[in-house]
Design brief:
Blueprint (H helix, E strand, L loop, with lengths): L4 H80 L9 H5 L2 E5 L4 E6 L5 E5 L10 E3 L5 E3 L1 E6 L4 E5 L20 E6 L7 E13 L5 E6 L11 E3 L5 E8 L7 E5 H16 L5
Antiparallel strand pairs: 1-2, 1-4, 2-3, 3-7, 4-5, 6-7, 8-9, 8-11, 9-10, 10-13, 11-12, 12-13
């Protein structure tokens, strides 16, 4: 039986709805697929950017670590080179002692000093400061610090100064126990060559100095301009004298003020400034 007209219209409308539904569903599915693809691409891009940043950070950390290692190796190499120039008697002394030595500079001259208290008091020769208007100290790790003059003893050529910071002070030995022939090292800045080490022996004790006082150790350790104010150190790592002068034109004739006189001079200056002994 043939379909009536209204049946045909209903069937046509239903088919049209189905077709429209399929088209809309296809559009929605495609749109969702497109959004997912774009999201995946963005996630992939973000991951690549994040990985790039992680790689950059890793490279920076590795470079920083390498720089720290190189700095440590440089200091270690320098100390080992200094050790190599001296005998085995001082293999454990130099590394500690050199950290307590400073380069002393004014606007007219330079020399050496060494730290005698953990809070930064140090001594040098007074003649190094003569004519200068400002004093700075350069530590072994190349810190440049202003130094305050506490006082000086002109007769013994001793000056006491102070820098800020925490340090491992060098200990003063009892110079009455110094023996002729014992090995010593001198640390200083001869001719501007910072933190140089020379080795020798005690040639004599109680030598008369330019002040007519029998207060000087004679040594054959090389002393040159710039060594003044530096420590003369024994095998125990203790200071037995402060390098003071050499006989002009002569080799192996250096002289250091004995440590007991250093202690007396420092405490005299400290008492004038603080009404107490310093060491």
């Amino acid at each position: 039986m043939p379909l009536e007209r209204h049946h045909k219209i209903m069937i046509g409308s239903f088919s049209t709805l189905i077709i429209v539904f399929m088209i809309i569903s296809s559009v929605l599915i495609y749109s969702s697929f497109l959004k997912i693809t774009l999201l995946e691409n963005q996630l992939s891009k973000n991951q690549l950017e994040m990985q790039s940043k992680i790689n950059d950070l890793t490279s920076t950390l590795m470079q920083t670590k390498e720089n720290v290692i190189n700095l440590d190796q440089s200091l270690t190499t320098k100390i080992n080179q200094l050790k190599a120039t001296t005998s085995a008697d001082f293999s454990g002394v130099i590394e500690k002692a050199i950290k307590s030595v400073v380069t002393v500079k004014t606007d007219v001259s330079q020399g050496t000093g060494f730290i005698i208290t953990d809070d930064g008091f140090f001594v040098t020769n007074a003649h190094i400061l003569a004519g200068g208007r400002k004093v700075i100290a350069v530590t072994s790790d190349q810190q440049i610090l202003d130094a305050d003059l506490i006082g000086y003893n002109e007769d013994l050529d001793i000056a006491l100064l102070k820098i800020s910071g925490d340090y491992n002070a060098l200990k003063l030995a009892n110079s009455k126990k110094v023996q002729i022939g014992e090995k010593v090292i001198a640390i200083g800045n001869p001719l501007g060559l910072q933190f140089s080490v020379s080795e020798g022996i005690v040639s004599a004790v109680n030598r008369v100095g330019p002040n007519d006082i029998e207060a000087y150790i004679q040594t054959d350790a090389a002393l040159n301009p710039g060594n003044s104010g530096g420590p003369l150190i024994n095998k125990e790592g203790e200071v037995i004298g402060i390098n003071n002068f050499k006989v002009g034109g002569s080799e192996s004739l250096g002289f250091a003020l004995e440590s007991n006189y250093i202690k007396d001079a420092v405490n005299e200056i400290s008492n004038q400034a603080y009404n107490k002994d310093l060491i």
